[in-house]
Amino acid sequence: MANFADWQDRMLRAAWRHGDDLPVEVLEWISELYGEVGEISEEVFCELWTARTFSMARAAFQVIKKSVEGEIGKKVTGEEYCYIDYVRDPDIGPVGVVRIKSVEVSTPDWEEILGTMAEGVQEFVMSHYRIVWPVCENHRKGLHAGYFRGISVWRCREGRAGGHVVRAIDPAARL
Ligand SMILES: [Zn+2]
């Protein structure tokens, strides 16, 4: 497996902030890719990495879009606004960056993509509709994206315990 380790190391240097830990599913994806196509070049690897990040960001956006539109009764997509920006330039940071409002998705990790996307949609709803979303039913305060046991969640900062987890950002996720 010496060849694989060298190759993987080269690919991660090209595509990712070197030294940062990656979730298991990303490492599995890289290893499956190697099994399927062998030692592809950095350039091809970065293209595939970018395509993967973009498709996960789109999937995360769909999940959030569904809950926000159901809850506030307003659209977060439309012809008059285009606010998701896909960036492919490796010179300006990690490969395959997705921007939504002021937040930037530049991670291959699904839960992080979901949490970041949720913050972007939240910011959009505030700036476009002047609506605070989502809100804690008990404390009537806006929620904040965070993580609980590795799952991206909406948290409320109010309450005696100094805050509480309200729900998973993805309604299908199990807390
Ligand atoms: Zn609360």
Structure in words:
With 175 residues, the chain is α+β, with helices and mostly antiparallel strands. It has helices spanning 2-15, 24-37, 42-72, 110-129; strands at 84-87, 97-100, 103-105, 144-148, 151-156, 164-168. Helix 3 (42-72) packs across helix 4 (110-129). The longest helix has 31 residues, at 42-72. The radius of gyration is 18 Å and the shape is elongated. The relative contact order is 0.12. Zinc ion binds next to loops.
- How are the strands of the largest sheet arranged? 1-2-3
Shape: elongated
- Give the radius of gyration: 18 Å
Tally of alpha and pi helices: 4
- The tally of beta strands, per DSSP, is 6
- End-to-end distance: 37 Å
Report the sheet-strand fraction: 15-25%
**Main sheet: strands, sense, barrel:** 3 strands, antiparallel
Structural class call reads alpha+beta
Which distinct ligands sit in these coordinates? zinc ion
Mean pLDDT: 87
Low-confidence stretches: none
- The percentage helix is 40-55%
Q: What's the number of structural domains?
A: 1
Q: What is the string of helix and strand elements?
A: HHHEEEHEEE
